[in-house]
Amino acid sequence: MNVAGLISTTVGTIFLFLGSLGVFRMPDVYNRLQAGTKCTTLGAFLTIVGVGLMHNDWLPKALVISIFILITNPVSNHALGRAARKVGVPLCKKSVVDKTEEFEQRKVGQ
Fold first, then answer.
1. At a CB cut-off of 8 Å and minimum separation 6, what does 66 contact?
2. All residues at 6 or more sequence positions from 110 whose CB lies less than 8 Å from its CB, including other chains
3. Tens of pLDDT along 27-69?
4. What are the residue boundaries of the structural domains of the chain, listed by start?
5. What is the model's pTM?
6. Alpha-carbon distance 48 to 70, whole Å?
7. Contacts of 89 (CB under 8 A, 6+ apart)
């Protein structure tokens, strides 16, 4: 179990590092949220489960924490993205498609 925990923790920390690079390199808030959410959710999940596998008495608590992260991290980042949109944070100039505008027009028309 120690080897599986070590591999899981290592892969998780790699995902966390790549997520931080994505947040640093992306051009606008929406892309940063997307890069950060995907990588940090999987990275935190793998890191915490890996620690739980290395310390078997911590495994049930680690699984509960991991499930909580899997549920709350995407939801909280979605709320941040919607709040940024409502406040008027613009898209990057390179953005080609804005589906939110279409959705809001259909919602007003109903």
1. 44, 45, 48, 49, 52
2. none
3. 888 888 888 888 889 999 999 999 999 999 999 999 999 999 9
4. 2-109
5. 0.81
6. 12
7. 28, 29, 30
